[in-house]
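Q: Here's a chain of 342 amino acids. Please give me its 3D structure as C-alpha cells.
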Amino acid sequence: MDLCGSCGAFTPVGAKFCAACGKRVIRDSRARRAPGGADPARGGIPPTRSGGGGRSAALPLAGDAPGLVSESGGQTMEADRTTRCPSCGLPVPSDFQFCGRCGASMAGRSQTAPAPRPRGQAKLLRLDTTGKPLETHKLDRSELTFGRGADLSFPADTLLSRRHARVFYNPSGGLSLEDLNSRNGTYVRVRKEADLRNGDHLLVGQIHFRFEVAATPAAGADPLIAEDVPAAGGFGPTAPFGGKDPRVAARLFRVLQSGGDGAVAMIGPAGLTIGREKGNLVFRKDTTLSREHARIVVADGGFRVKDLESRNGTYQRIRGIVDLLDGDVFRLGEQIFAVESA
C-alpha cells in the first residue's frame, strides 16, 4: 500500500486516485509500514501467497480492482463485495469512496457485483469482411490475447501490434475487452448509437476518422450550408481549430495511413452524415459504405454517433477496458471477431 499525500490514507499500489478523498494520488515519502507487512519505502507490495504450480498469484495492474484472473485460472485478490464504477466500469471494493482508476465518486453505489459464472461459456467467431464466420475459438481459459505474437497470432497483419489486445472473463463472469497500448487501436461496433468524446476515433467503411470538439455553437446559429461541407466526397474548409464561426461545434479529421491528418470536415448544430450516396460526406468509391451509413449529432450538450442500420457497421475505438455483450463485434488490425454466448 502507498500513502496518499493529501489525506494520509493508505492507497492501493499504483492507484491514480485516492479511494478515501478522491484526489489524484501524490505519493507520501514517509516510510510507514502498511497493514499486512507492506512497506511503502520498498514499493508498498505486500507478500503474496503461492498459487497453483508454485507460481505466485498475480497482483492487479495499477488502478485495477481485485478479481482479475491469472493465467492459471485462479482469482487474484477477489473482494467479497465490489461495486462497478459508474464512470469506467471498474469493480471497486464497496468500502471505497472513490474509484482508484478514474477518481469518480462511489457515493450511493452499494450494489454488489454478481459472482463469476463458470468459464468456457462464450465463443469468438472470426469473420471475413462480409460477416461470414471463418473459424471459432472457444473461450475456455481466463483470457485470450491477440496480436502478431499472441495466443491468437496473425504475423502477416502489419496493422497489429505484437500484443495488441486481450479478451478476458471479468469478476461478474462476463467478457471484457482491453487494448494493450497497441499502435492502431481496438474498435467495437456501435450498437445503434454511442457517445462521442473529444479525440475519439471512428472506422466508417474503409475510412478512419478522428473526432475533436471545436467549440460550443452559439444559440440559434444556422446549420452549416452545402458550401461549407460539400456533399461530393469532399471536406469543409480547414479553418483554425475552434475558429470564429459560431456554427462550428466539432471537427472530423480524416486520418491517413501514415497516421497523419488529412482533410477536415466541420460539424455544425445540424450534425453531419456520412455515406456512399447521401450525406454531407459522400465517398462513392468505398463499396463497404451503405447509402447512408452513419451520422454525428449534437444532443444534450454533447455529441453522439449513430449507425444508420448500415450493412458493415460503424466502429469506435475503445479506451481502456470495455464489457462485451452477446453479438458484439470488434476489430483489431484487419481481423474482425464476434462474441457468441452459449
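Q: Can you summarize the key feature?
A: The mean pLDDT is 73.
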